[in-house]
Amino acid sequence: MTQDLDGVAVQERIQTSFAKQGLMATLGASLVNVAPGFVEIALRPGPAISQQHGFVHAGAVSAIADTAAGYAALTLMPPDTGVLTTEFKINLVAPAAGELILARGKVVKAGRTLTLSQAEVFAVNAGREKLIALLTATLMAIEGREDVTD
Asked: How many CA atoms does the CB half-sphere of 103 hold within 13 Å?
């Protein structure tokens, strides 16, 4: 699949791969927006992903942030390439409490083998966004490794 001018092929590639992620399905996360170098993932809070104080668990926040950063990197990689996170650091700056949790991944610097991405995670309440986490990740392009099929 090659990227056409409006990015449809890239969007389909990310959507198809995202649909194969069992963790995203388990969390109830959804892919909201895909563009070259950018991916947005949404998560609806609920008891199944909360921690003991009722906030969305840091593991769930980290998972959508890592996934958004990784898929943002993948949008800029060749079609026959996969992506793996080699490291990430996350700062949790406020409790994950809101009507919706949004992770916005963007590429900082794309390379042939390694890509640096960031993801900002926001809690949305009454249409207002509050930054709750910031993730920085290094992602590796891998060749010859297809997504798992059903």
From this structure: 34
The vertex-18 CA angle with 128 and 105, nearest 5°, equals 40
Contacts of 62 (CB under 8 A, 6+ apart): 88, 90, 133, 135
Rounded Cα–Cα distance for residues 18 and 13 (Å): 9
Residue among 64, 71, 70 nearest 30 (CA): 64
CA 141 from centre of chain: 16
Residue 4 has pLDDT above 90, yes or no: no
pLDDT on residue 1: 34
Amino acid at 118: Q
Q: What confidence tens digit (pLDDT) does each residue in 64-85 have? A: 999 999 999 999 999 889 999 9
Of the candidates 103, 3, 95, 105, the residue with the CA atom closest to the CA atom of residue 43: 103
